[in-house]
Amino acid sequence: MMRWARAPVGKLCGRCAHPIAKGAPMLVIGVGERSRIEKIRGVCCAGPAPPDLPEQVATTTPLPPDLTRLGILPLDWSRRPEDER
Ligand SMILES: [Zn+2]
């Protein structure tokens, strides 16, 4: 699967190591159906980006929820009761 996206941070082209500036278009190539491995290609190797590629969308990273409040994922398993391990 291939898709065009804008670099969320500065990256390097996976083929020629040309720098891809933050916000610059890049081709993301998914490897395998279920794999989350992705290869990055800049316009240097993938050619010009499609003209309809949207501009960089400002995204904010949500703060992770307080897991202890949710009662899941105890950080120290040794403190859990025996039957919950
Ligand atoms: Zn390249």
Would you mind describing this structure in some detail?
- By secondary structure, the chain is mainly beta.
- It has a domain at 1-49.
- The chain is 9% helix and 24% strand.
- The chain contains 2 helices and 5 strands, in the order βββββαα.
- It has helices spanning 43-46, 67-70, and strands at 2-6, 11-12, 19-20, 25-30, 38-42.
- Strands 1-4-5 form a 3-stranded antiparallel sheet. Strands 2-3 form a two-stranded antiparallel ribbon.
- It is elongated, with a radius of gyration of 20 Å.
- The model has no long low-confidence stretch (mean pLDDT 82).
- The chain binds zinc ion.
Question: Mind summarizing the main beta sheet?
Answer: 3 strands, antiparallel
Overall SS class? mainly beta
- List the ligand species: zinc ion
Sequence of strands across the biggest β-sheet: 1-4-5
Q: What overall geometry do the principal axes of the alpha carbons give?
A: elongated
**Element-by-element helix/strand order:** EEEEEHH
What do the pLDDT scores average to? Answer: 82
Q: Radius of gyration from the CA trace?
A: 20 Å
Stretches where pLDDT is under 50 for at least 5 consecutive residues are none
**Overall number of strands:** 5
Q: DSSP helix count?
A: 2
Amino- and carboxy-terminal Cα gap: 40 Å
Percent range of helical residues: under 10%
Strand content: 15-25%
Quaternary arrangement of the chains shown? single chain
